[in-house]
Amino acid sequence: LLTRHGETDWNLQRRIQGSTDTDLNENGRSQAMQLAENLLASGKPPEIIYTSGLKRARETAEIAAKRLRIPCLVHPGLEEIGFGLWEGLTWEQVETRYPELYHIWHTDRRYGHPPKGESYQDLLDRVIPALQDIVKREGGGDSERRILIVTHSAVIMSLLSHLNQTPFHEMVKRYRTQNTQIIELDAKRLEE
Q1: Which of 123, 21, 49, 136 is nearest to 81 (CA)?
Q2: Whole-angstrom distance, CA of residue 41 vs CA of residue 100
Q3: What is the pTM of this model?
Q4: Cβ atoms of residues 68 and 40 within 8 Å
Q5: Catalytic residues, which ones?
Q6: What is the pLDDT of residues 4-22, one digit of tens each?
Q7: How many whole angstroms separate alpha carbon 51 and alpha carbon 56?
């Protein structure tokens, strides 16, 4: 199971967070508790949580893990894409201040990157091995063990685009993920 962290003030302000280590707001904490309640109500809650080390994901994971009474581990590689100099800005500000670089990035999202930031391919190059390591640690793709991974929207969108062979310029339209939305994924797909 993949989920995006709970809400932050920067989400409300529509600011690009990327690798900036922002905190959950009160609504984000409530969303994390509701995530745990939804998982309990499903009848098939996870047995362990892995999380990005960024505060907004880690706090979401810790709140859920406490309610679910399961372990919670930080795993490197699950962090949000680094947007470099664009972090803290809105997309409108980026388009105004960096028109040429924004155009290049917008045209080739998979390999284009913001100044001092990562491309979506750079993100996949660290996320996929991290997920494969988690699956291996937890018994492989044939294991019945349920795992919750708390991460970030670009991680989920780019992973789904990659796995489903969707053009990256369509990722937001096709795979936009709300805060604490659950995406179920067959772990075997990560072993391919």
Answers
A1: 123
A2: 49
A3: 0.96
A4: yes
A5: 5, 80
A6: 999 999 999 999 999 999 9
A7: 10
